[in-house]
Structures are given as structure tokens and as C-alpha cells.
Amino acid sequence: MRSLEDIAALESEPLETRIGTRTACDWLNAGSALDPARTAISYLADADPDSVPFTLSHGELQARAVQAANLFHALGVRRDRAVVLIMPTLPQWYAATLGALAAGSVCSVNWMLQASQWLDIVRASRARVIVALGPTDGFDIWERLQAVREALPPDVMIVPVHLPGQARAEDFDHQIALQGAQPLGLDDAPVQENIATWVHSGGTTGAPKLVAISHRNLVYKLWANALIEARSPTDTVFADYPMFHVAGFLGRGLLPVATGAGVLIASPIGARDPRFIANYWKLIERYRVSFLSGVPTTLSVLVNHPPQGQDLSSLRAFMTTGSTALSPDIARRIEAMTGVRVLLTYGATEYTMNVTQAPREGEVRYGSAGIRIPYTEVQAVTLDGDGIITGTCAPDQIGTIAIRGPGLAAGLVRSGALTADGWFVSGDLGRVDAQGYLWITGRSRDLIIRGGHNIDPRLIEDALRRHPAVVHAAAVGKPDAHAGELPVAYVELLPGAQVDTDALLTFAREAIPERAAIPREIHVLPQMALTDVGKPDKVRLRSMAMRDAFSAVVRDIVGEALRVDVDVRADPAHGVQVQIEIKAGERRTNLEPRIDETLARFPISTKVRWR
């Protein structure tokens, strides 16, 4: 995997000869059968490398998956009915997911959503069974589910699940233990065209939106990622992403099983657990983890907490991270600290995870999202006023990114969201260089990406507009060296209304259901910047947020005595560039290294002029 030439060589054979007619279940069963005695899952409740783990071998996992499929079938799950999982990352998640894929379909739900949002997902996925975490210290999943139980469709069954070693009568572990160990002759065994899973498209915030992904989508991505990442049955990976996110579901959930590898669940809440980050390097040493992993937020923390003599020889020479919001400086520091190259990717739920990745044995080009994966096409296109593709951009010309290939979710095909010739127009802006490397330069859609979490700004805006003093509200992403972006909001008040920003922030905290979406700052404007059609001008507001962010960063270093001017301008290569002018005189010599080091942590192009 060095360049587009290697990709083209793979494509000399039709994809069908590589993936056949097998379903995701077939690939998962084959992976488990490679070495049934190999540890498939090691689970720790407290991220302590010295704790005794709960473990399941691949053979034991496969046996539980068969029993889970039999249970779900007995409860009425069929090909057109789903099993909804509302739980953190537990070993039972794997058995339930594999069983649900065999019996019907699966939908792993963000357990941090409001219960009313769970109801919407249950209805949209036509769920027959909900497997939810029972009463457990530190979680209120069961209590919130019970509060809306009467509103559930009457034929939906609820099965509780508990932490490993705490099984109780009638819970998931107890019920599957009563099932036969042989697969039932299901009357509607899956085929590639069947929907396999329903996955959140909006990250962890906003109104729940489900993308329907088929068995064919999953099989293609299991094959492609095993290939481009050189996955091996000897690997051990962290289950550190949330399993309701497509990167967690496929990359940390299905892919290790399909390749016969091992999974370490260091904590049920993954990288959200500070104990996991504190023990990160020790866990790699203890469990011989082979892939360093994490979203940009996690990697930004890890570079400031380097290994302290731990044996990291088990690590592969490369890792992947699923967001182009990672600063090239952080990527280089990770490589210098561990010897592991950081391969950026580009993807989304609608593409069944990734469509590009930096080639593992080729040139990384930090800041780029890499080259297309086999059998997937990626190009920058021009659009007319109605969003219709009018042409293909030349190399390095910025346009809207369009995708075509077998990873495009089946739900998109069925909804007619594609062009007549099979292109999906993403809404992301970028360019493709002469060697096929993709560079994301901006977004025509308004998503705020905070540490890998997609935040729909409408969630913030709708909440703020409910305040009696607010007439206009708009939320955008403010650059942040740690999280990539943080949500900030701008409001215009009704004539004569008075309210301070502290009161608005308090209102927002109470009105917005997801913590990640609560704006870090709210600014009251005398008049909202509006477009010609009367909508908030997000381009101007993003520029305002950039100027504020970089002015504050530079001021923290140079102080208030020096003159600092910050401007945001269009740039042909990067989309936008932040240009900073500092009048420092003889102080430049002392200030310049600190300024350069600080600005390098941001995933935004910057240029400094000294006077």
C-alpha cells in the first residue's frame, strides 16, 4: 500500500471475486474459526492493567453469538426487525451484535441520548428487542428506559444486561445460556442486499438520524480495511471508540472478530475514562496492543503524557485516526515519541466508515486524508446553484467532495440520495492533488466536529431560540488546539431585551441534552450577520470565531502591549488561512519559537508576519 498504482493493481480483478457472496456473518464466523482458543475479548472495569480481566475466547464468543441469535429469533426478530443495543462497551455487546446480525439487524444506540430520542430510533429501526444495561452504579440507562417504557411500541421486548460476572435471573447472559448451542435453521438467513445495521449519522448529538448499512457494505469494508491496514490474527486492539459510532462499530467491533484478532476493553466508557488515558502506555505493554489509536482529542492528550519506559515493541509502525481535524504537529509528535506514523483518514457513516487513508507504506503527507481505498472513487466536483454536478475539478482545485463505490450505505441508494451515475455529493470541500491525495479544506454543511464527535448546530440554535430574549441564534465551530473545534454561539436579542451571557449559558446547559454540544461561549451581537436570504451568515461567523481564537492564543504569549492583527482569508490550497501580523520589534527572537510551536497544534493553516 504505497500509492495509487498499488490500488489500481488490486482493482485489476472485479470486487466480486474478492468478497464473493458472503455476508458479514460469514466473515465474522470465519474470523472466529481461525483460532477458537485465542482470546477474543479482555475486559477491565477500571482500566487498571494489574486487574484480573474477564476474558472470552473466539470459540466462546462464537458460541454466545449463536445462542444470542437463537434467543432473538425466539423473541420475534426477523430480517425486517432490529435488535437495539443501549449499553456502554461490554463483552455482551459483541455477542449481542453478532447474534442480531444473524437473526435480523442491529442498531447500537448512543446510551447518552435522551430517552425520547431512543424512542425515535426504536421506531425508525423497527426494533423487536432492546438489550439495555440494567440497574448499574454510575449509569442511569435502565431508569431512563423504564420512564418511557409505556411509550414503546407494544410488541417490543426489553432484555436487561449486566456487567460481566454480575448476571442475574432473566437477564441477557441468563437467557442466552438457556438457548441451544447449535444454529437454528433460520427461515430468512441473510443475503448481501439485506440491511445489517442502522448507525447514527449525526455523531452523538442532534436529532437521531439512522443510516441503513447492508451486509454487502460491511463485507466490502471488512475486506478493504483488513487489507489496507494489514490486519492479522495476532493483533490486539483497543475498544476505545463508542460502539454507536461507525468507527467503533466496524473498526473496534466487527473488524477484530472478522480477522481473528483480540480486543481490549479497558473501560466500558473507553477514552472518556481518565483512568484509561492515565494507564494507556501500561495497558499497551501489559496486553501487547498492536495498534496505537485515538481520535484527535485523545492523541492531543497523549502527546503531553508520553510513555515512561514502557515496552511498546508490540505496536505496529502505523496507526489510523478518523478525523482530518488532527494537527500535523500532533501527528509528527506522536511519530517522534513512539515511532508510529499517524495515517489520517476521511469518511463518514454514509460511506460505511472510511473512503481514503494515507498509504501505510507510502508517503503520509501530514494534513492530507490520504488516497482512496480500493474500488472507491473520490473526486472534487463543481456544482450549479441547484447542487447538480457540472464538472470535475482539476488537480489541486478546491471543489465539493463526491464519492462513488460499494461502501456507500444501502439506505442512500434506496432513498435516492445519489446522482444517476452513482455519485454521493458529500457537502465537504476539498481538493485532490496530482498523486491522488485528498485534502479537506472546509465544509459546505454546518457540522461542528469536536474531538471526533459530530455536533449538529441546529441542536444549539433551536435551544437558544427558545429563550424569550433571543430573536436570532447561530452556532459554529471555534478552532481549538485540543479538540479541533469547540461549539460557540452568536445571538441577537429582541429589541429592548436584556440578558447577559452567563444567563444564556445557564439556559443552554439546561436546554441542550448532550454535553458535547453545550457552547463554550455565547456572544451577543447588536445585529446578526445575515445572508441575502435572511439566514445567519455562517461563513462570516466562522471567520469571527477564528479571529477571536487566534487573537486570544497569540495574546497569551505576547501580552497586551504588542499590536496583533488577525485576518482570515480565502486560500487556494487550504480553503482558508489565518494571517497574523505581530509588531514585536526586537522581541521577535524570543517570541517566534513559542508562536510557531503553539500555532502548529491547530489543524488550520496559519501565516505569521513580523514587523
Explain this structure to me?
The chain has 4 domains: 4-375, Rossmann fold (3-Layer(aba) Sandwich); 376-407 and 420-444, Roll (Luciferase, domain 3), CATH 2.30.38.10; 448-535, ANL, C-terminal domain (GMP Synthetase, Chain A, domain 3); 540-610, GMP Synthetase, Chain A, domain 3, CATH 3.30.300. It has 19 helices and 27 strands. Helix content is 31%, strand content 25%. The chain is α/β, with parallel strands linked by helices. 51% of the residues are buried.
Quick rundown:
The protein is α/β, with parallel strands linked by helices.
Order of strands in the sheet with the most strands? Answer: 6-5-3-4-7-8
Mean of the pLDDT scores?
A: 92
- Proper CATH architecture of the largest domain: 3-Layer(aba) Sandwich
**Estimated structural class:** alpha/beta
Ranges where pLDDT stays below 50 over 5 or more residues in a row are none
Number of domains: 4
